[in-house]
Amino acid sequence: MQASDSSTNSIGGSIGGIDIARIAELRGAEAAAFRKARPKSEAKLGNGIAGFLGGVPMHWMTDWPTPFPILVDGAKSATITDIDGNRLDDFCLGDTGSMLGHSPPAVARAIRRQAARGLTYMLPSEDALAIGTLLQQRFGLPYWQIATTATDANRFALRVARAVTGREKILVFNGCYHGSVDETMVRLINGKPVNRPGLAGEFRDLTRATKIVEFNDIAALEAALANRDVACVITEPVLTNSCMVLPEPGFHDALRRLTRAAGTLLLIDETHTISTGPGGYTKKHGLEPDLFVLGKPVAGGVPASIWGMSEEVATRYGAYNRTKEPGYSGMGTTLSANPLQFAAMRATLEEVMTEEAYAHMDRLARRLDAGLSAVIQRNKLPWHVARVGARVEFICAPGPLHDGGEAEKAHAPELEAAIHVALVNRGVLIAPFHNMMLISPVTTSAQVSRLIAAFATVAGKLAA
Fold this sequence. Notes:
38% helix, 464 residues
């Protein structure tokens, strides 16, 4: 989870077509309503949690636009309840970590069963015997490893890419997000590659080893690969952790053709786009990555990630290992591939991430897309809706967006914050840093109806 870089699509005295004074008025009123509904939470969180830096266990808990964080009592299916008894239809779902619902019963059973057998011991369990085959069948690549976060998996996969190509540089797309992988923390500002603004304690020029071009810009991609010095292109199939940018027709075909021509490996990070289907965007659209990463929901909410490689990459990496000097590879963490991960992942892959579940998710996501789009049109707002499978986002700017630069300009933090708090007060939770909404296998039609109705009420107030 990561906030987008701050920017606004403001014109004159408006943001996203809405008068700034009206946005401020709405946010003030909704903040007051939020506080009134949560006296217990404010008493416990108003001055922060004792003992934690910044008053919270993880700094982004204070980045939510609510006056103070929501103090959760429990979560079930697609609903969160706070300690004041407020129930929220949850469309954030832990920013994809709980995309399959909170504590899916099959995963909860697997966790309980494994907890009695030990949580970690640096050795495989019987569940591991099934998982390798499940990953091959589900995602197509023949060789896999287990890590704990998508950041770890991306970092390890990039290390393999550099090892087998003998090249230092990687290439990313402007607006990308791949966890906290250092090399990907770059941006284009006025056309110039720079370290991403706001990085803490970063003293290196990350652009020395990272090239960056705009998503959907095939000519720029071809030029950046021409020197044949790029080990790997790492990308999401759809830019998702900004205002959503969909690939234009032919982009992924060109990406694969150009990387192969340049001897550059292609890493597809499906951590957010797994919303597309059981095999991700990669399987649904026939992509052919050399390396593949998936984190967040793959173990039903237990911290886990997977990274896989093609037969060719595995062969090249085997040859590299036979000739490299002895020593630690720099890949792997002690708690990675623990039996709790195996148990939860097996249950998730076998019983939760099913074709039937995704059919339900896609059906309700289409309905949400249409409902939000109708509200925007009815209120004559200069906004649009984007969707990748069960992941839906309303964007407070005209669209569709072409690249990360346009996505950055479309971001409207003040307006989005006001909408977010207003939706919370109407019983709906969406992602805090961008207007992302997820449909889970246990999200109901009634919850989607409530979200559309709440969005209509808020949009009506803003457009009045």
